[in-house]
Design brief:
mainly alpha, two-stranded antiparallel sheet, 6 helices, 2 strands, flat
């Protein structure tokens, strides 16, 4: 069909499925045709699809994803705390090998500076990722203050322009 509509022989099936409350995609699957053809034909027949269910499902899915991101961010913060705590804890170093192929270990009071740096890097990465998933809320009010100062500046500039304009008009009136 070059015009993108389904054949008239399928219109009654479309009407029946629509009356049963099926959505556009469900009808397209049921009839084994393109969703666009269902939409075009439904519009030609004066049929509409209730999108409130789709919108509600989308909102629910977005809320679920936000909750999952929040939980993951919480887990990442917990991981960062555990990694940071390891910096000051005793650390077991071990080695397997040598000519006798033996196992050696040593319990150090704390990790080496290189290991501390690696732990801090991993903790920092976990914190950064958590902040991307669930950004910290601004509590300083800095943006509000900037906005207020910007508005105040605009108002003063507008007042100054109107005062200058009034002075110019007065001066023109005195010259006339």
């Amino acid at each position: 069909m070059s015009d993108g509509y389904m054949g008239k022989d399928k219109w009654e099936t479309l009407r029946a499925l629509h009356a049963d409350g099926l959505g556009r995609n469900a009808i397209a699957r049921e009839m084994d045709i393109a969703p666009a053809a269902v939409s075009r034909t439904a519009a030609r027949l004066g049929l509409t699809f209730d999108r409130s269910k789709i919108q509600a499902a989308t909102a629910a899915r977005l809320a679920d994803l936000a909750e999952r991101r929040s939980l993951l961010a919480e887990d990442l913060i917990t991981d960062a705390e555990k990694l940071r705590a390891q910096i000051w804890q005793p650390h077991l170093y071990w080695d397997w090998g040598g000519k006798d192929h033996d196992y050696d270990d040593k319990l150090a009071d704390e990790p080496t500076p290189g290991d501390k740096r690696a732990l801090m890097g991993a903790a920092g990465m976990a914190i950064d990722r958590s902040l991307k998933l669930a950004p910290a809320e601004e509590s300083s009010g800095l943006d509000a203050a900037k906005s207020m100062l910007g508005s105040l500046g605009e108002a003063l500039a507008a007042y100054s322009r109107s005062a200058d304009s009034a002075e110019e008009q007065q001066a023109e009136g005195e010259q006339a």
